[in-house]
């Protein structure tokens, strides 16, 4: 009887088989082979395209997937969502933690030049950028009724997208999966995470390997967020001690829903004092006229003591900031319809923000073809934030979602750029404390590049609050190195 061993050990055979299956799994039609404006070699594979989530309506959500530059088969898959509601996740791709830094084109209509971003989050993770809901970015529907939506429908649609996306990319199904986002994605992320967990419990296929979530400068709770501005403004020296004491006495700490005319008068004075500031980063200028935009990156009007605090390691300037304001500072979210931007021009539809470079690139026909996006006559012009949707905040406070998820063992990282006045860190710090979990890592500085990069406090059930010193609303835009540092450590389960 023969006793010879197989030529290939069983483990090697399985490894080769899995590699073969993996190499054949990702849809080749979605592969991005080149990008206008970039002349080098991609450090990893890129895929993009549409997932149809409702055949009858022709509802399609657009994604751009950047494979990890490190270990794609084992590194986490992270879904990234920008907020708004109504803002494209290409905001994160172009301006924050995508694989490229964008340099403005030589002519007014010229395409930007793309350079590799050494602080891209694809250094340590597979990252999936999603335009959601339908009507945002490149995502669209053949039935315009889908452009009337809200928190709960958006979460359901995004969950449906994920199930279908992982069917297209089954080789990533076993990877740890995380959901991340910023701003109004403070609502998108926990509501979607809840849908994912509910789907896992119900046996939805495929089974997602969900491991936790990340929220940056996120809208969370109308009372906590609405009451955050006054303490922030006082702590930053934007209003006087006298005014702070007067408004506190007049409003009894209830700034979000003032109960007296006297309180309203004092709050109006607070608004008047901070009105000229860039709400997304109080360290950055916010000018009234576009003809003096070019001085915004020089920080010539900032005091010397602020200059280093506001510095960034990005080799190219962050996007130009222009004068403007977002929704009322004391009430960023109210029950019911959420303010969008119909009163603003399409060329600059986010206050204080000039998205000209991203718009020029993403509305170029050759770029759209390269990333498999529908042409303008189908999906419409790309705008950083759209006025095409009517969006309802119908999920209420996110605190109950955070409690549900963290109590079930899913880690949560809540981070805040500490110079953001749109969703101030004071509100995020207050609501994380209000959850009632025991402090297990008392308030302390965290380090990046041997420097204090911010402060953190850790709670039981793996709830972590983190500030990033000198950063604004879009943390990776202002502090890319520090952002990659805390992101990498947290994904790996290491202390920050």
UniProtKB/TrEMBL annotation:
InterPro entries: AB_hydrolase_fold, Peptidase_S10, Ser_caboxypep_his_AS, Ser_caboxypep_ser_AS. Residues 1-25 form the signal peptide. It comes from the Eukaryota. One of its GO terms (molecular function) is serine-type carboxypeptidase activity. One of its GO terms (biological process) is secondary metabolic process. GO terms for cellular component: extracellular region. Pfam families: Peptidase_S10 (PF00450). Its EC number is 3.4.16.-. Keywords: Carboxypeptidase, Disulfide bond, Glycoprotein, Hydrolase, Protease, Secreted, Signal. It is found in: Secreted. The keyword Disulfide bond applies. Belongs to the peptidase S10 family. This is Carboxypeptidase.
């Amino acid at each position: 009887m023969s006793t010879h061993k197989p030529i290939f050990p069983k483990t090697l055979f399985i490894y080769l088989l899995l590699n073969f299956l993996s190499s054949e799994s990702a849809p080749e039609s979605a592969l991005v082979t080149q990008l206008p404006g970039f002349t080098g070699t991609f450090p990893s594979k890129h895929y993009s395209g549409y997932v149809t989530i409702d055949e009858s309506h022709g509802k399609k959500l657009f994604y751009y997937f950047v494979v990890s530059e490190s270990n794609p088969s084992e590194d986490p898959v992270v879904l990234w969502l920008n907020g708004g509601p109504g803002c494209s996740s290409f905001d994160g791709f172009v301006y924050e933690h995508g694989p490229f830094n964008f340099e403005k084109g030589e002519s007014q209509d010229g395409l930007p030049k793309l350079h590799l971003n050494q602080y891209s989050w694809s250094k340590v993770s597979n990252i999936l950028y999603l335009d959601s809901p339908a009507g945002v970015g490149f995502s669209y529907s053949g039935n315009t009724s889908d452009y009337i939506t809200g928190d709960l429908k958006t979460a359901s649609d995004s969950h449906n997208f994920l199930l279908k996306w992982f069917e297209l990319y089954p080789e990533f199904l076993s990877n740890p999966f995380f959901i991340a986002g910023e701003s109004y994605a403070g609502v998108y992320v926990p509501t979607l995470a809840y849908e994912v967990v509910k789907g896992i419990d119900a046996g939805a296929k495929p089974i997602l390997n969900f491991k936790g979530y990340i929220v940056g400068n996120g809208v969370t709770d109308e009372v906590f967020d609405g009451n955050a501005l006054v303490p922030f403004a006082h702590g930053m020296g934007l209003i006087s001690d006298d005014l702070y004491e007067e408004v506190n006495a007049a409003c009894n700490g209830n700034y979000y829903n003032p109960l007296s005319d006297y309180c309203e008068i004092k709050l109006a004075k607070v608004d008047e004092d901070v009105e000229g500031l860039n709400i997304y980063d109080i360290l950055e200028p916010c000018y009234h006229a576009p003809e003096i935009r070019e001085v915004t990156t020089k920080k010539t009007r900032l005091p010397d003591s602020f200059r280093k605090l506001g510095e960034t390691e990005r080799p190219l300037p962050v996007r130009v900031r222009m004068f403007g304001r977002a929704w009322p500072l004391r009430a960023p979210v109210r029950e019911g319809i959420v303010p969008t931007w119909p009163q603003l021009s399409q060329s600059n539809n986010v206050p204080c923000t000039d998205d000209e470079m991203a718009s020029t690139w993403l509305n170029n026909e050759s770029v759209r073809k390269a990333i498999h996006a529908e042409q303008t006559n189908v999906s419409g012009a790309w705008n950083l934030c759209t006025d095409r949707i009517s969006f309802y905040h119908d999920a209420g406070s996110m605190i109950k979602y955070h409690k549900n998820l963290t109590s079930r063992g899913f880690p949560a990282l809540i981070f805040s750029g500490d110079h953001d006045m749109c969703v101030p860190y004071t509100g995020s710090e207050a609501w994380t404390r209000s959850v009632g979990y025991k402090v297990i890592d008392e308030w302390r500085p965290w380090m990046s590049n041997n420097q204090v990069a911010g402060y953190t406090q850790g709670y039981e059930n793996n709830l972590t609050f983190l500030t990033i010193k000198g950063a604004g609303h879009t943390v990776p835009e202002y502090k890319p190195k520090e952002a990659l540092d805390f992101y990498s450590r947290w994904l790996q389960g290491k202390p920050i």
